[in-house]
């Protein structure tokens, strides 16, 4: 029973780098390289924030969000003005 627990602890304690060198480069998944390509695209230093690097849809969603935020701020400003200035009849 003690040997089984040691084997389990050892399997969790072994680092992934040691495991990956044991496996070899020929068994690396194809998806790993696709993920690396996407990571390089988003980490490129081009001056854009990361939330705009995806596609044109990101830019449209950002602009719509900013427009709705400004409309909300304008509505709150109008509400505060209407509540603070007495109506004359």
TrEMBL record:
The chain crosses the membrane at residues 60-81. Its main location: mitochondrion. GO terms for biological process: mitochondrial electron transport, cytochrome c to oxygen; mitochondrial respirasome assembly; regulation of oxidative phosphorylation. One of its GO terms (cellular component) is mitochondrial inner membrane. It is found in: Mitochondrion inner membrane. The keyword Transmembrane applies. InterPro entries: Cyt_c_oxidase_su7a_sf, Cytc_oxidase_su7a_met. Keywords: Membrane, Mitochondrion, Mitochondrion inner membrane, Transit peptide, Transmembrane, Transmembrane helix. Belongs to the cytochrome c oxidase VIIa family. PANTHER family: CYTOCHROME C OXIDASE POLYPEPTIDE 7A, CYTOCHROME C OXIDASE SUBUNIT 7A, MITOCHONDRIAL. This is Cytochrome c oxidase subunit 7A, mitochondrial. The gene is COX7A.
